[in-house]
Write a structure and sequence with these properties.
There is one protein chain. By secondary structure, this protein is α+β, with helices and mostly antiparallel strands. Helices cover 23% and strands 23% of the residues. It has a domain at 15-165 and 329-419: Barwin-like endoglucanases (Beta Barrel), CATH 2.40.40.10. Strands 3-16-13-15-14-17 form a 6-stranded mixed barrel. The chain is globular, with a radius of gyration of 21 Å.
Length: 423
Amino acid sequence: MSLRSLGGTRTGGTLAAALLLSACAGGVIPPGASGPVPARPPRGGEETAARPIPATPRPTLPVTPSTTVPADTANAVSVGITRGPDIATLIPSGERSRKALQAFRLSCPSLMKRADQSGLTSGSDWNNACAAASSWPEASASEFFSRYFEAVQVGPGTAFVTGYYEPEIAGSRTRQPGYEVPIYRRPPNLIDVNLGLFSDSLKGKTIRGKVDGSNFVPFDERAQIVNGSLAGKGLELAWAADPIEFFFLQVQGSGRLRLPDGGVMRIGYDGQNGRDYTGIGKLMKDRGLIQAGSMQDIMTWLRAHPEEGGAIMDENKSFVFFRELTGAGPLGAMGVAVTPEATVAVDPKYVPLGAPVLLSLDRAEPNGIWIAQDTGGAIKGANRFDSFWGAGDNARAVAGGMSARGSALVLLPIGSAARLGQN
């Protein structure tokens, strides 16, 4: 399960995008899913986003138009790839590349045995790079990437990048004054149904609901749960101090609770009620309530209008359930801990999970090498990325306002481009 639930993982991301976008219709389960950020806005009741640092992105490469293929069968090979430039002078040295090497090293055990949906590589292609990464000095990380990889552009190479983070909110293991918002475990009567077992035309489709007598019906929506439909059933995992902060943690799909005694409890996605996800940012923009759609804009308005804000949050019928996490984390879609400022979520049909990605964008903060270690419900299509910024005030400020455009190159093991027919 991804870090962000989008309703994973991961999800998203993306946080602003997730709040603006809606999941697929028809009751199909949204794809899955996650330091200290304050339990309340930092100053004067207002959220603040990081001031963007502008940059000039590298132009994308010219491409030959490819034949249009159905979205459900498209992958990197079918949309077309173009051999990229020599990357030796494009990879910056420094902390970003060092963290990327660490993240790549963590991904290698899964990368070498994972089926690649993109069609770009096979597991054995990564053997040499992974063997070298195990002992490569981090001080020369940029040299590692330029020595063992070559670049390809997938499709037009036009990148759009958002951000996500691991939220930390005030919470308690027990209900007490100031901690009144229940965080629920997955209910035992929440049932997943694989529709493909009933009809070939429904392969890959899954719905969630519950049994009511002899009928299978939708599970409770957010408003019902918030108003107590699960109360008193022994499902309370913990209690949050702030309903708005908890709403945003649900969008992320995972996070930390800062406990009254100073301890931290990490919680992770353990299912969703099967209801469609509705991005409240779009609702608010369409109604003229906010001008932009960043997390900070949305949260500031919700705090200024608590009654109307509660009703708007309930218009997103999706509700996320959690379990307590122990050990390393948060985990991404590869089952390894994601690395702050080095992990990106991708669509695995276009980027192999575990592959390095070189971003050149109109914001300087995300530029450089990242490793594809996560996925997310809003992260669909070629050159769509969601950057992970870790935990803390800065991560929250950067991720909540991240929206960058430019170009992207996927890095593949040396020799891959020739095998794919790129000279």
